[in-house]
Each structure stands twice: as structure tokens, then as C-alpha cells.
Design goal:
It is a single chain. By secondary structure, the protein is α+β, with helices and mostly antiparallel strands. Helices cover about 45% and strands about 15% of the residues. The protein has two domains: about 1-85, Arc Repressor Mutant, subunit A (Orthogonal Bundle); about 90-150, Ferric-uptake regulator, C-terminal dimerisarion domain (Dna Ligase, domain 1), CATH 3.30.1490.190. The chain has helices at about 5-10, 20-30, 35-45, 55-65, 110-130, 145-150, and strands at about 70-75, 80-85, 95-100, 105, 140. Strand 1 and strand 2 (about 80-85) form a beta hairpin. The longest helix is centred in the last third of the chain and has 19 residues, at about 110-130. The N and C termini lie far apart (about 50 Å).
Length: about 150
């Protein structure tokens, strides 16, 4: 069976594959949301009643450390998590965050144009500041349709 990138990163970092780590990664792979550690913990409890919240936090920190998961702060007081290696059906995307209801929308509209602009910006910043950029995130904050015109 072919190992996934995150498993290779774990092995290269000297970290063991464990059932809780496998379970947490499975939960992240199966969601189209941006779950918090608590959200992941609640789902994991349904499968493994002995898993602890501390294990979930430590595992997520490890996944962030090895570059398998991104941690986001969307302004709701909770860290949110998302895989860095998006599955084929979930291409590169950015986020729209409602400041009222805290909903998060993944968007891919205008992605080609946005990525071209980001590439130019990254190249200019890299040159000007002698800084090697390896990743970027884009978040737009505002109000969703539901919060703009409440019923």
C-alpha cells in the first residue's frame, strides 16, 4: 500500500504512525469544513472513546509542524485546521469569512488571475526583501448574504 505524503513526512521526522494520528488525519481528509480541535475531538470520540483532547491538540500541532496541516485563525477565537495537500476534488482555494456568523466559504473564483497576481507579488517581495516565500494564504473578511440582509 502506497504511503501518503503525511506518512512520509512523519517517517522522515522520526515520528511513529499511531491509531490516534491515523484517525485524526482520516477526519481531516473526510471533511469539507475547517474544524477546530474540539470538532475533531468530538468526531474522534465516536470512533475511539479513549482518545483525549490533549492527544488531538498534540497531533494537530505535529501535523502543522511537519507541514501536513495548516492552522488558521479566522477571528472566532478557535484555531481551525485544513490539510495542506488538498485532495484532487478540492483544488487550491482561499477563504471568505463572515465576521458576524463566522461562516467560512472556500472559493476558487478568479483563482488563475489571483494566483498570477500572487506570483508577481511574491517575486517582487522575495527580491526586494531577500525573502524566500514558500506559502501564502488569502482571507477576505466581511458579511455573508444571510448576515447582510437578515430575515
Amino acid at each position: 500500500m502506497k504511503a501518503h505524503r503525511w506518512q512520509n513526512r512523519m517517517q522522515c521526522g522520526g515520528f511513529r504512525r499511531t491509531h490516534p494520528r491515523e484517525l485524526i488525519m482520516k477526519i481531516l481528509k473526510e471533511t469539507d469544513k475547517h474544524p477546530s480541535a474540539e470538532d475533531i475531538y468530538i468526531q474522534a470520540l465516536n470512533v475511539n472513546p479513549s482518545i483525549g483532547l490533549t492527544t488531538v491538540y498534540r497531533t494537530l500541532d505535529l501535523f502543522v509542524q511537519i507541514g501536513a496541516v495548516q492552522r488558521f485563525d479566522f477571528g472566532d477565537g478557535k484555531a481551525r485546521y485544513e490539510l495542506t495537500d488538498n485532495p484532487p476534488e478540492k483544488e487550491h482555494h482561499h477563504h471568505l469569512i463572515c465576521m458576524k456568523c463566522k461562516s467560512i466559504v472556500d472559493y476558487t473564483d478568479f483563482m488563475k488571475e489571483e494566483l498570477e497576481l500572487m506570483k508577481k507579488t511574491e517575486d517582487a517581495l522575495s527580491t526586494q526583501h531577500q525573502f524566500k516565500i514558500v506559502h501564502h494564504t488569502v482571507h477576505f473578511y466581511g458579511y455573508c448574504r444571510k448576515c447582510i440582509s437578515p430575515e
